[in-house]
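Quality-control log, excerpt.
Job 1 of 2 completed; input and output follow.
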Amino acid sequence: MLTRHRREEGAVAILVALLLVVFMAAVALTVDVGGLYLRRRALVNGSDSAALSAARTCARGFGNDTRFDSPEAAADFEAQANSPITTDEVAPTNVTYPPPGSCSLPTQYGHVIVQYTSQQALYFAPVLGFQHQSPVTTTATASWGFGSNNPIPMVLSNLLAPGTCAMPPNGTIPKGQTCIFWYDNDTLNGGNFAFLSLNPAGWDVPAGSNCNGSSSG
C-alpha cells in the first residue's frame, strides 16, 4: 500500500536562493569588473599624457615653461585634460625621478614616473561580501634624451691619399681597398674635428688635429 508523504514545501525557495547567488555573481562580474576596467582605461590615458607632459617640462626646464611651475602641475593638467575623471576623484600625483631625485639636475636626459590612484564604486560585489569600492592604480614612465644636441663627427678614410679626408665618387674605390673608420676623441666644442684611429696600424692622427684639406664647417 502506497503511503503519501508530506508536501515538500520550500524546495523551490532554496533553489531560487542558490540561483540568485549565481546571478548576483554574474552581475557583479559584468557590471563591477567592467566598471573597474573602464576606470583603469581612463586612468591609463591620463597617466600616459601626464608622464609625457612632466617629461617635456623637465626637458625644457620648468623655469622656462611659462604654463607650469613644476612637473607635477604639468602632469595633473594633462591628466585632467585627457581623462574623464575629475580632480576630486583622483589622489594627488605621485611623480618620481631617478637620482638625484629631481628633474632639475640633470635636464639633458632622464625619466619620470607618474602614478595615479582612483577609487571605483562597486554596486553588486558587496552583496557577495566584497568592499563597496576598490582602488585602481596606473603607472606611466616617460623619458627624454640628448637628441641632436651633441653630434659625434665621424670620417671614413680609404687610404688612397694619406692625410686627407676626401672620399672618391661612388663605385671608384678599388675592390679590396682598406678603409679605416675614425671618430672624435675630444670634447665637442668650437667645431673641433679631432679623430682617433680605431686601427693601430692605420693613420696616427692625434687628438686635437684635423685631416689635411678638411674644414670644421
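Job 2 of 2 completed; input and output follow.
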Amino acid sequence: VETLVACFGRCFQRSRLAASEVIHNRSLFSDDDTRQLRSRLGWAHVLDSAKIHQEDTNFPDKNKFTLDLAVHEERQVVRYIMGVARTESPEFLRDCKFTGGKWEEQWITTEDFPSTGTLCCRYVAADPHQVSQAGRR
C-alpha cells in the first residue's frame, strides 16, 4: 500500500492500476488494503470504471456503491455511475437507497441529486450486450 501511494503520482496509466490486475487483485491487496487505498487516493482514482457491473473488481464492495454526496469526489463518482446507467440502461441500477430522503429515479437523467446524504446502490448489467465500454470512458 505504501509503495503504491508513494509512486501513484508518477503513474501515467492510472486506469490500468485501478483494475483487477493491480489495485483490485486479491493476491496483491486485501479488502483492508483496498479500503486504505480508496481512503488515501480517493474514489475516482481506485474505481475500476470499465467494470462497475462486475463482482470480481472494485473491492471490497464489488458492484455495490455507498457514496457520500457531501464529498465532492464521491459525488463525481455518483455522476459517472448515473451517466453510465443513462447510456446503458437505468434498470442496471438496483437496490438504490438514499439516506437523505427518497431515491428518485429521475436523478439518472437529470443529475439533479441532493448535495448531502448517502446514496447506496448496486450496478448490475443484466444483459452484458448492453455494456458500453465507449460510454464508460
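Post-run check on job 2. The chain has a mean pLDDT of 92.
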